[in-house]
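sorry for the late reply, my laptop died twice this morning and i had to redo everyting from scratch. anyway the thing you sent over, i finally got around to it. pasting the sequence first so we're on the same page, its 413 residues, then the predicted structure underneath. double check i copied it right bc i was rushing
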Amino acid sequence: MTLPAPALAEIRRPSRLLPALGFVLTGLAGRALIDKLLALRGGAELVAHWAQLSSLADIVAGVTLAGIGIGLTGRVAGVAPCRQRQLFGEALRLGLMLSGACLLVCVALALSGRLALLPAPQAGLVLPALGVGWLAVAPGLLTAWLLGRGQPGRAMACVAAMLSAPLLALALAASGAELASLLAAQILVGGVATALLLTGEGSWREALAQRHGLRPFIAAGIAIGILSPAATAVARMEIAASASWEIAGAVQALWRSSEWITAIAAGLLNAHFLPRLAAARDAAGFAAELRVASRQVLAPATLALGLLWLLLPQVLALLYREGLPVDRVDALAFFAGDALRMLSWIFLFGLFACCAGWAVSVGELLSLPLFAALLLLPRPLSLPAIGLAWMLAYAVYAGFNGWALRRVTGLLR
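ok and here's the structure:
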């Protein structure tokens, strides 16, 4: 069966796996360094406050980067080089308008007091954090564009540059001004990057008028960028209300411990395999890339999850503290759900490569939102029951994404 048109155009040679891994690890290491410096300067409380501010910024940026950004990577890989720069300009203007609308809504909520997520001393940082999210759109789309061109090394340099100023500002910040210094550095770097990238050709009206294949990803970005963090918050609150905050903390610890594996897998699928999938010239090549992704990402990541499961008590003691109410039996369903989650992502990036934005949007309802909905069913919540809901939600999500990809391409029959 013939693949959608974007997958048939000539492109640059796809990237290699190691530079893509470097790109993923640069982002993870930068965020870990910020958390480490905050922990040394102000303890866990300061880290938690930064996490709240980062979540606000992620909502504004995520409605673009989780949809149009990923779609841009796939579309750039599937168009001729002469169209790639024009496609970036269209994505930039469309993304800034979409995240700008989200920014206005969030600002209105903040001014009405409905985003009171921080104690009084840090409450004044909510609006700057929202601004950081809007200014993160342009550099985020630049890295997505570079990944689509098969240049993860340059994307890694871009991420490193964007992280260097906040890290320096944090290291030099006066006591009590750590969060404000971080936000100020991000605003400065993001503002300069946005101003420079907006000097290209094109107009705002053209960004809306062009039928460039990015608009189907608007709904996907809204679904992923808003539904996912909202569903996670609802799930955490329900666990705390129906079980205890101690169980909620144990679930969070399990998520964080496996995130180093799942986040690397997701990053490699985005940075390395999405451009290759979009560049596939026929159905056979597309299917071959899916098999390679399963072999090079899913298989080793699943083995790593198994090793983490075996060493779970030691890992949790190292990352957190001894005595967390989690044992291997309780964690088994969580890790099985993580493996199914990574399988679903292979199908998901196949859908992004085929520009099947409708399937991405519908499928998002069957991941974290379905998990949160399962927790709301009337039954006692225990750690094994929560893990079972996690595994079931991602079994459904993987099944839907596989079905949708088969419908779009006919490859998985």
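The first helix runs from residue 17 to 77.
thats about all i looked at so far, will dig more tmrw
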